[in-house]
Specification:
This protein is an all-alpha fold. It has 2 domains: 1-55, Arc Repressor Mutant, subunit A, CATH 1.10.10; 57-197, Tetracycline Repressor, domain 2 (Orthogonal Bundle). Helices cover 73% and strands 0% of the residues. The chain contains 9 helices and no strands. Helix 4 packs across helix 5 (88-100), helix 4 runs parallel beside helix 7 (120-143) and helix 7 (120-143) crosses helix 8.
C-alpha cells in the first residue's frame, strides 16, 4: 500500500464526514430510508468504509444520536460553566440556541427520537442528554426560587420544562406555520417566563 500512513486525525475527519452525511440523509429520507449505502454514496466513499466506522445501521443511529445531542448540548447548555448560577431564562436561551443553530440537525433529532423505542443505542444517547440537561434545569429552577415538596416533584417540574422546550421545537418541524427557528425560540422563552419566572416562587409544604 503506497502513500502516507493514515493518522488519527484522518480517521476523526473521516468519521465526522460520515456523520454529517448520515445526518443530511436522515433529514431527507427519515430513519426507514437511511441505509449504509446511501450514507456512503453521499459521503463519496465505499459502503465498506461506513461499515468499518460504525458496523451496522443501529450503531450508526446511536453514534448519530450521540453526536447530534452532544453538539446541541455543547452549543447551548454547556456554554454555562457547571455549578455557576444560571437564570432559567438564560438556560432556555442556551438550549434554544443549541436546538435552533442548525435546522438539519433539529430535523435529524426528531427522526432519531422516533427510533428510541426500538434502538438501544439511540435510547442510551437520549437518556444521557436528558440527564445532563435536567441537572442544569434543576439548578436553574432552584436559582429562580422555585421550590417543591421533594425530589420527585422537582423531577416532574424539570421533565415538564425540558419537554416544553423540546416539544415546541419538534412541533415546529412538523408544523412551522411560517415561523422561523428564532420565532420558536422567542415563543419558548416567553412561555417559560410566564409559567415559571414571572410568577411568585412555587413553595409547597
Amino acid at each position: 500500500m503506497s502513500g502516507k500512513p493514515r493518522t488519527l486525525e484522518f480517521w476523526d475527519a473521516r468519521r465526522e464526514g460520515l456523520l454529517r452525511a448520515a445526518r443530511a440523509e436522515l433529514a431527507e429520507t427519515g430513519v426507514e430510508g437511511l441505509t449504509l449505502e446511501r450514507v456512503a454514496r453521499r459521503a463519496g466513499v465505499s459502503k465498506g468504509a461506513v461499515q468499518y466506522a460504525f458496523g451496522s445501521k443501529d450503531q450508526l443511529l446511536g453514534e448519530l444520536a450521540h453526536d447530534t445531542l452532544f453538539s446541541i448540548y455543547t452549543d447551548g447548555v454547556a456554554a454555562h460553566r457547571e455549578g455557576e448560577p444560571i437564570a432559567l431564562t438564560e438556560l432556555v436561551d442556551a438550549l434554544s440556541r443549541g436546538l435552533a443553530s442548525d435546522e438539519g440537525r433539529l430535523v435529524a433529532l426528531v427522526a432519531l427520537m422516533a427510533t428510541a423505542r426500538r434502538s438501544d443505542a439511540t435510547r442510551d444517547a437520549l437518556a444521557s442528554f436528558y440527564v445532563q440537561t435536567d441537572a442544569r434545569i434543576a439548578q436553574a429552577l432552584t436559582d429562580a426560587g422555585v421550590t417543591t415538596s421533594g425530589d420527585q416533584e422537582l423531577a416532574e417540574v424539570v421533565r415538564g420544562t425540558r419537554g416544553a422546550v423540546l416539544g415546541m421545537f419538534v412541533h415546529w418541524v412538523v408544523h412551522p406555520q411560517g415561523r422561523s427557528l428564532d420565532d420558536v425560540a422567542r415563543e419558548v422563552r416567553g412561555m417559560l417566563t410566564r409559567l415559571l419566572v414571572g410568577q411568585e416562587p412555587v413553595r409547597t409544604a
